[in-house]
Design a protein that fits this description.
By secondary structure, the protein is an alpha+beta fold. Helices cover about 40% and strands about 10% of the residues. The protein is globular.
């Protein structure tokens, strides 16, 4: 259920949604662009609309989304860098998506 609800939540509640095509473009940029050669960096884009989406008269969503913007090196919070918190988040995400250890590559299994 989380896997189905997450894109909706990101688009209409947080305003941080980007479509599949743009997500692929961003991934390719981080992998290939010279400005992204630095490792151990949290890359972000300054696009995102910070408003709740609405339905237009033609039945399509409008007014939200995190697309566009320029890439920049973002600062991670202490919570993001905390190994215990990261492991708990990983485990909860796997559980929410119905994944078990047999679904994961060996390198991804928590020690």
């Amino acid at each position: 259920m989380l896997c189905q609800a997450f894109p909706w939540f990101m688009k209409y509640v947080t305003g941080g949604y980007v479509g599949m095509e743009e997500a692929g473009e961003r991934l390719a940029q981080v992998v290939d662009a010279p400005e992204c050669a630095k490792s151990d960096v949290y890359w972000a884009w300054n696009g995102g609309a910070q408003q709740v989406g609405r339905w237009s008269e033609d039945g399509k969503p409008k007014g939200a989304g995190g697309s566009g913007g320029e890439i920049f090196e973002n600062t991670q919070s202490d919570a993001v860098r905390d190994r215990g918190t990261a492991m708990k988040m990983w485990d909860l995400s796997c559980e929410a998506c119905g994944m078990t250890e047999k679904d994961l590559p060996k390198a991804a299994i928590s020690p």
